[in-house]
Specification:
single chain, alpha/beta, Rossmann fold, Arc Repressor Mutant, subunit A, two-stranded antiparallel sheet, 14% strand
C-alpha cells in the first residue's frame, strides 16, 4: 500500500490488527471496514456513471457534509473512510470536474475537498466555478505537489486551504473544521510566499493580458494585433511588467509569472 495513502487511515479507529487484515483486500473493503458499521450508502448517478454519497447520523457537532473530488478512486475512498471515522458525512464523490460541479449544485456540501491536478478541468478551475456559483463555497485543495504555481492559482481561485496528500488525518480533519467555520487555514510557509509576491497583484488587467501573450511566445507586433493596441503600447506594458515583477528581461518575467501562478505553464 502506498505509504501516503496508508498514512491517511485512522489507526486509532481500527488499530494495527485491522489494517493488517485488510492489506491484501480491495480498498473498498478496507474503507467499509474502517467506516462505522451503521453508515448506509446510497448511489448517486450522474449520466451513466454511478457515484456514492454516504449518509451518517449526526454523531457530534463536528459532523460536516463533505464533497470529495479526486480522479483517483483509491484516494477518494481512503479519504471517505477517514472522514466517516471522525463523524463527518461524505455526501458525494466525483472523479472529474463536470461531475463535481453537478454534485456541488445538487448536494450543496459544507466543504469540498478538491484535487488540484485533474483533467480536463483542474482543481483551480473547479474551485473558481464553485465560487462563482456560490461565493460562500468552502474549498480545501489537496495535491501531491507543492509548487508556487499550484499554490497561487488555487488560492487565487478562492480556496480556503491547501494541503499536501501526505498530510496526517488529524491535520486534515482539523483543517476541514476550520474551513467549515468560515476561516482560512493556510500553512505559514505558504502565507509567507503569498506575502513575498503580493506586489504581483498590482498588474492591471491589460498588463496581465500582455503577460499571458508573452508566455505564449508572441512578439510585440503579434501581441499588438491580438489585443488591438499599438506596438508602442505593448512596449510600454512590457516595461511596466518587468518593473513590477522585478525581472531583467521577458524570459525571467515569464519564469516569475509561472512560479507565482500568474500564467499557466505552457
Amino acid at each position: 500500500m502506498n505509504t501516503r495513502i496508508r498514512n491517511l487511515l485512522p489507526r486509532d479507529i481500527a488499530g494495527e490488527q485491522l489494517l493488517s487484515q485488510q492489506m491484501n483486500a480491495p480498498w473498498s473493503a478496507a474503507s467499509a471496514a474502517l467506516a462505522p458499521s451503521h453508515a448506509p450508502v446510497t448511489p448517486v448517478t450522474i449520466g451513466d456513471t454511478p457515484y456514492h454519497r454516504t449518509s451518517l447520523p449526526s454523531m457530534t457537532d463536528t459532523s460536516i457534509r463533505v464533497l470529495l473530488v479526486d480522479d483517483h478512486t483509491i484516494m477518494r475512498e481512503g479519504l471517505a473512510a477517514v472522514l466517516a471515522a471522525h463523524g463527518m458525512t461524505v455526501v458525494g464523490q466525483a472523479g472529474d470536474g463536470e461531475t463535481a460541479l453537478a454534485l456541488f449544485h445538487e448536494l450543496a456540501p459544507d466543504v469540498s475537498i478538491v484535487d488540484l491536478r485533474m483533467t480536463p478541468m483542474d482543481g483551480a478551475e473547479i474551485t473558481h466555478a464553485m465560487r462563482e456559483a456560490n461565493p460562500n463555497a468552502r474549498i480545501v485543495l489537496l495535491t501531491t505537489y507543492d509548487t508556487d504555481e499550484e499554490v497561487f492559482r488555487g488560492l487565487r481561485a478562492g480556496a480556503a486551504s491547501y494541503l499536501l496528500k501526505d498530510v496526517d488525518s488529524a491535520t486534515l480533519v482539523e483543517t476541514i473544521r476550520v474551513v467549515h467555520s468560515g476561516r482560512k487555514s493556510i500553512a505559514p510557509e505558504i502565507a509567507a510566499k503569498l506575502a513575498e509576491h503580493v506586489s504581483s497583484d498590482s498588474l492591471t488587467p491589460r498588463q496581465s493580458e500582455v503577460l499571458r501573450c508573452l508566455s505564449e511566445g508572441k512578439s510585440n507586433l503579434e501581441i499588438a494585433n491580438t489585443l488591438f493596441i499599438s506596438e508602442g503600447t505593448v512596449k510600454a506594458h512590457v516595461k511596466a511588467i518587468l518593473e513590477k515583477l522585478d525581472a531583467r528581461d521577458r524570459t525571467q518575467a515569464i519564469t516569475i509569472a509561472i512560479k507565482r501562478g500568474l500564467v499557466r505553464h505552457m
